[in-house]
Here is the input.
Amino acid sequence: MSNDLPKVAWIGLGIMGSPMSENLVKAGYDVTGYTLEQAKIDRLVAAGGTGAASIADAVKDADVVVTMVPASPQVEAIAYGPDGILENARRGALLVDMSSITPQTSVDLAEKAASRGIRVLDAPVSGGEAGAIEAVLSIMVGGEQADFDAAKPLLEALGRTIVLCGPHGSGQTVKAANQLIVAVNIQACAEAVVFLEKSGVDLAAALEVLGGGLAGSTVLTRKKDNFLKRDFAPGFRIDLHHKDMGIVTDAARNVGAALPVGGVVAQLVASLRAQGDGGLDHSALLRSVERLSGSQV
Here is the structure.
């Protein structure tokens, strides 16, 4: 283990956090992890990391604290309060929040952390579970240039496209735009799939040729098998995309940007969740189109 690499505390070991933290271990980092489920801490330990009994225990000696939790309330829960990161991390530590939350939550966190001598970057990611496992995530960052430069080597062990987008909250704003594009793209693919099948066309052949033309996209490439096999095991849950569509529609409203198609897709995501499909992958937007087209799902 190289001693000149920063010591890392990792909070949140879910679908994304587990493979990402393991990629840091593989890159030679000393990673101490904490999450709510002991089995996930055990998984990190098995991969060569260290387990912690609490957030305070995880962050006390860390140079860099990385957080990867579902939404703004969880970020606030782990950051604030006597048992939280800000009370227990050392002055000068760098907090890299990779969760997808509201831009305002990131701005507030950076402000509160600064008063304790802790630097913050918002660094949400795109690429889903596959991107996390393969370490090819796109990482959109908000914060100070100097802090971005300090974090960059660590981020390069997690992703391929790493860009400082502006001040605190900017990473979250770009992530919200990302989630808008992904949801609308999945919806378009889902509508095409139902149309093709009802027309009696060989779906695999159709998606292959569509993938090679202007209609091709990372979404279509990554989700093609989900559509073909109706396999909706979550790489990214509808519940989380529902949260993200709330973030982007709210943020767009605040700045006076119209999202006419995004608003419709946000409602389709919400309806899918209301029908009990919240735990499925976001490619399950296909189920919504099938229902609307008269299929029993």
The CA atoms of residues 146 and 184 lie 35 Å apart. The radius of gyration is 20 Å. The mean pLDDT is 97.
